[in-house]
Amino acid sequence: MDVLDLLDIESEVSLPKRYRELSIEEMENRVQEIKANFGDRLFIPGHHYQKDEVIQFADARGDSLKLAQVCATMNQAEYIAFCGVHFMAETADMLTRPDQKIILPDLRAGCSMADMANIDQTERGWEKMQKIWGDTILPLTYVNSTAAIKGFVGKHGGACVTSGNVKKMLEWAFTQKERILFLPDQHLGRNTAYDLGIKLEEMAVYAPHTHSFEYDGEWKDVKVILWKGHCSVHEKFNIQHVENLRKQDPEINIIVHPECIFDVVQASDYAGSTNYIIETIKNAPEGSKWAIGTEMNLVNRIIDDHPDKKIVSLNPFMCPCLTMNRIDLPHLLWSLEKLESGEVVNQITVPEEVTKYAVLSLERMLERS
Ligand code: 13P
Ligand code: SF4
């Protein structure tokens, strides 16, 4: 039995049967009621990938960057019930005062990409990189990473990035050091570095499990070291999907998230964060045709919001992000009813010694966004 199984059991045990028996209307009314009673003392941020049944209660919707920015300024909220995944709740904790409490309605809402880099692997890999390249590397981490990784990056002068500011942050990073270590999403790192004119031959991949590099060239030519991690949702889009759609309809516009693999991003017309995808389609002409390569809850919402445009998923058999989907109406209501009764459940707290450095990496990003 692994950790996820244990969390499964723990969460089912902690969610009383009642929450499976209430009607949707009853649950929705209760959430509204609790929100109204708490007023400004309770704030609910919601990531774009959340289910409709949850996002309808969000006081702010956004991509990772916007939600981090909003939480950093939410001074009046005593409680932040984060409808998103674990690394986002950790980020919110680090950007708020110690007396503000962050709640993740279901602790199983992790991120498989963030789990692909742990601190021991990172320190071990870094040591090897220092032996090869010396003090020429600046680490950058996608916010989809644990607080410990953000702390490591902060300690070594680096910063966090999101899909909304990654280009700007990579440009900044190259003003600091000759080389960049990009954690943990190889695809976002590769797509962005290529966009900035770095050749594929100048990018090495570091595989943490084998503690080795996937690289054929000479060490001195490496400009970007990509951590071998990925998003299991966005990796489901492939070049065949793009080619099939283009064949069916040469006029279709293809827009994808930069967590998609290099070939898919290259073959698409546009790539950017969830906010970028939403805004691009909102501003597109009536009657235009689109295929979107990102998480299904968001794609379905965009389709519903734009009946005047023809929109499909780039992969017709796409699944939603399972961990984002862990946050559902029963768990949201359960955590809020506990709060109402004076009990804070599923609080996310990052230890002081980690926050100290991790916050540096977040602040370096926020200053430049
Ligand atoms: P953004 O909303 O920041 O584009 O991030 C997408 C994502 O995968 C979050 O986990
Ligand atoms: Fe993590 Fe991918 Fe889900 Fe985003 S979509 S939370 S990166 S697994």
Describe the structure.
- It is built from 16 helices and 15 strands.
- The protein is an alpha/beta fold.
- It has three domains: 136 residues, Rossmann fold (3-Layer(aba) Sandwich); 118 residues, Rossmann fold, CATH 3.40.50.10800; 76 residues, 3-Layer(aba) Sandwich (Rossmann fold), CATH 3.40.50.
- A six-stranded mixed beta sheet has the order 7-6-8-11-9-10, sandwiched between helices. Strands 13-12-14-15 form a four-stranded parallel beta sheet.
- Strand 6, helix 8 and strand 7 form a beta-alpha-beta unit.
- The termini are far apart.
Question: How does the SSE layout of this entry go?
Answer:
Elements: H1 3-14, H2 18-21, H3 24-38, E1 42-43, E2 45-47, H4 52-55, E3 60-62, H5 64-72, E4 79-81, H6 86-95, E5 101-103, H7 119-133, E6 137-142, H8 147-155, E7 159-161, H9 166-176, E8 179-183, H10 186-195, E9 203-207, E10 212-214, E11 224-227, H11 239-248, E12 253-256, H12 262-267, E13 270-271, H13 274-282, E14 289-293, H14 296-305, E15 310-313, H15 329-340, H16 352-367
Parallel strand pairs: 1-4, 2-3, 4-5, 6-7, 6-8, 8-11, 9-11, 12-13, 12-14, 14-15
Antiparallel strand pairs: 9-10
The structure holds 1,3-dihydroxyacetonephosphate (13P) and iron/sulfur cluster (SF4).
Iron/sulfur cluster binds next to loops.
